[in-house]
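Aim 2, interim progress: modelling of the NDP-bound target.
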Amino acid sequence: MQLIKGTEVAEKVLTECRRDIAELAARGKKPGLAVVLVGDDPASRAYVRSKDKKCKELGLHSVKHELPASTTQDDLLTLVRQLNEDPAIHGILVQSPPPKHIDEAAIVRAIDPAKDVDGFHPINVAKLALEDPSGFVPCTPLGCQRLLIEAGIQTDGAHAVVVGRSMIVGKPMAMLLMAKGKGGNATVTVAHSRTRDLAAITRQADIIIAAIGRPEFITAEHVRDGAVVIDVGINRVEDLIADKGYRLVGDVAFNEVAPKCRAITPVPGGVGPMTIAMLMANTIKACRQL
Ligand code: NDP
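Predicted structure of the complex, ligand included:
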C-alpha cells in the first residue's frame, strides 16, 4: 500500500511557487491575495489565518479582511469591488460559508473572474467545463488531481467514482477527471446522498474520491482490492484523550480501508495541505494573466 503524502507533494508545489514568484519579482511583479472573512466561525478563521501565513512565508502580498458577522451585503460588495480595482491584488477569496444574511452567490458573481482564485465564479465554472486553461479551478479538486499525477496513478481509462456533488469539490473533481489530458481521461461516476446501493458502485471504482463530509463513512465494503482512495473529508470527532478534545478524521475509515488499497491519502496530511498550495499557485497564475 502506497501512502500518498500530501504534505510532501504540497511542498513540491510550493517550491514551484517560490521559483515563479522569483521570476515575477525579476519583472517587478508581486502576486497579491486578499482573503475576506465575515463572522467568527472558528474553522473558517483557522483557514484564513493559515492562508495568510502561507502567503507571507512565500513572500506574496497578503491582505486579510476580518469583518464582523453584522457586515451587510452592501458593505461586503463594496469591499469586493474595491479589491477588484486594486492593482496590488490579483486573487480574491471570500471564505465560505458567510453568515446566513449574506447571499453568497451574489458575492461570488461580484468578484472579477480574473481574480477569482477559488474558481467559483460562473465564468470559471464554464471555463472548466470548456477545458479552457485560462480559467481558475477550485483548489481542492485541483490538489486531488495533482496528488494522483504525482503518485503515478494512471487516470487514463480508469473508472473514477466521485462521492459528493458540491460545487467546491465533487462537481469540479468530476470535470477534471473526465477532461482530456494528464490526470484526466477517466470514466467518471458521480454519487451523492440519493445514490442507490453506493457500495456496489464504489466497489467498481479504480479510483474513489470521497468528498462527503461524514466521518469515516467509506468502509472496507465500499472498496475493492487494489483501488486508489483520495479522502477529501475533514471532520472533527470528539476525542477526550486529544489535547483539543477532538481529532480530525476523513470521510474514509482509514484503518480498515488502507490495507485493501493500492494507494490512499491520510487525514490529516493528505488533501488538506494541497488545497492551500494550489491557492498559492492560482494566485501566481492570476498575477501572470492580469
Ligand atoms: P457538502 O456538504 O457541500 O457536500 C457533500 C456531498 O456529499 C453532497 O453532494 C452530498 O449529497 C453527499 N453525501 C452526503 N451524504 C451522503 C451519503 N450518505 N451518501 C452519499 N453521498 C452523500 O461538502 P463539501 O463538498 O464542501 O465537503 C466534503 C468534505 O470535504 C467535508 O468533509 C469537508 O470538510 C471536506 N473539505 C475538505 C477540503 C480540504 O481542503 N481538504 C476543502 C473542502 C472540503 P447531496 O448533494 O445529495 O446532499
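The radius of gyration is 19 Å. The chain has a mean pLDDT of 97.
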